[in-house]
Amino acid sequence: MTWATRCLLAMSGVFSLFAANAEAGPLQAGAASIDVTPPAEWLPIAVNGGFTAKFVDTITDPLHAKAIVLSDGATTIVLCTVDSCVIDRALMDEAKAIAEKETGVPTSHMLVSATHTHSAPAVTGAHGTDADERYREFLIGKLAEAITTAHSKLAPAEAGYAVGECTQWVHNRRWLMKPGTALTVPFTGRGENTAQMNPGHQNPNMIRQSGPSDPTVTLLAIRDIEHRPIAVYANYSTHYAGAPNISADYFGVFGEEMQRLTGGTTDFVGIMSNGTSGDANCIDFSQPARKFTHTQVGRDVAGEAFKAYETIEFSNDIPIASAETTLTLDVRLPNEEEVRQAKEFLEKEVGDRLPKSVPESYARETVLLSEMPPTRELKLQAFRIGELGIATLPTETYGITGLTIKQDSPFKPTLVVGLANGWDGYLPTPEQHPLGGYTTWRCRASCLEIEAEPKIRAALAGLLKQVAE
Ligand SMILES: [Zn+2]
Q: How far is the CA of 96 from the centre of ligand 1 (A)?
């Protein structure tokens, strides 16, 4: 079979290229959505996603933990997202362990990721915001409930996939700047920067974007045996759109819109997972500023996804496979002198209060990192759903990394889920590190060793190969 024929078959959603597991039978699926909006009496509540702490007391739209369970009779997997900015591995592992006890599905078959809405309660400390411990405990139970409820709904189903494109809302936000003009902040581990995130519209000091971004919207669609749409699992690579607190941002709008467009059942579950958006957002800085809302972004992305949805050929012959591994990486720790200077600055300027500025936040991060272990264990996964491949990584990943994983994958298409099964911060490539800029600045949100990206890609290539066999 030529590469072109293989691609054509893959794009039309015909599941035939890989041998099915001998014990596998027709597809079964179940989906559930559990409300995880914080109770009104817990407001105001800490929200992370900014450099400094923010406490909010309004709810714009509800947050959800959404899960899809798929089984071919031999292998059962879970695809789950939570409307949260970042979720550490300990929280996810605890929820998965509860769900495993209830369902018998091994935790290694469970993909759980944060959507990366910047308008949800903080469950993991990041920059100047600490976790809300009460909400954290609440979320563990709700997350497990989403998985067990989806599992309890397993019933005969059919599935298919498609790839669309929405170029409008994905732009690389990291720009190379004229010498001496990129933003530089103390306590970040970088004295001079060449790259700058969000440099402002048509800034005369911008040279070019520092890399590509991935405009594809990939979706897996599931229907019951009467052909009624019950769920969609989609993936797109924009950071978030921005919404008034508390909100599921465009991820929530996408789900509702897919239900409307597909004519889904009343308990339809529409999931938008975050792809490789570490260096991408909705804003094209080469153009004058334009106003937009998370509603508009959600509707536009769903519109493009639905065009692709209409080309799907559904089948109940969907072989499923999953693989998981861990990878231990070094952490970029500050040296003794950097820690001493940060402590001195904090004692003099900040005291016991939370940071109020970007330098204060990075000084605090320097001290916090110095107290953390010098290595990190990352959880990585790969899934095969028919001929769709899924690779997951616990990082905020650059577009180039996602595109390379897709190119090297035996599955066409492959979707790459970021912020999955933990949170280990930004993942610049070794080539991007020396350029500096926000996503390389040393903190809990960017602390992996400089060679982390190729090591993670190599491990994922091995996992994808494993599930293709
Ligand atoms: Zn973010």
A: 24
User: Cα(224) to centroid of ligand 1, in Å?
Assistant: 35
At 49, is the pLDDT very low, low, confident or very high (cuts 50, 70, 90)? confident
Residue 117 CA, ligand 1 centroid: distance in Å: 8
Specify whether the CB–CB gap between 359 and 350 falls below 8 A.
no
Q: How far is residue 431's CA from residue 323's CA, in Å, rounded to a whole number?
A: 29
Helix locations, 263-409, DSSP H: 294-309, 336-349, 358-370, 399-408
Domain locations along the chain: 3-174+206-331+374-468, 336-370
Q: How far is the CA of 122 from the centre of ligand 1 (A)?
A: 12
**Region of 326 on the Ramachandran plot (φ > 0 left; ψ -120 to 50 alpha; else beta):** beta
Q: Which pLDDT tens digit goes with each residue over 371-413?
A: 999 999 999 999 999 999 999 999 999 999 999 999 999 999 9
Ligand 1 centre and the CA of 250: distance in Å?
14
φ and ψ at 329, to 5 degrees? -125, 155
Tell me, what's the pLDDT at 98?
Answer: 98
Rounded to the nearest angstrom, the distance between the alpha carbon of 67 and the centre of ligand 1 is 22
CA of 241 to the centre of ligand 1 (A): 10
| Runs of H (alpha helix) within 112-239 | 133-152
How far apart are alpha carbons 25 and 27 in whole angstroms?
Answer: 6
Q: Which two tokens stand for residue 367?
A: 């001290």
Beta strands in 97-179 (DSSP E): 110-114, 155-165, 171-172, 174-177
Number of H helices, E strands in the chain: 9, 21
- Residue 129: DSSP 8-state: B
The CA 239 to ligand 1 mean position distance, Å, reads 6
Q: Give the C-alpha distances (Å, rounded to integers) separating 154 from 30, 69, 105.
A: 4, 7, 13
How far does the centroid of ligand 1 lie from the alpha carbon of residue 49, in Å?
6
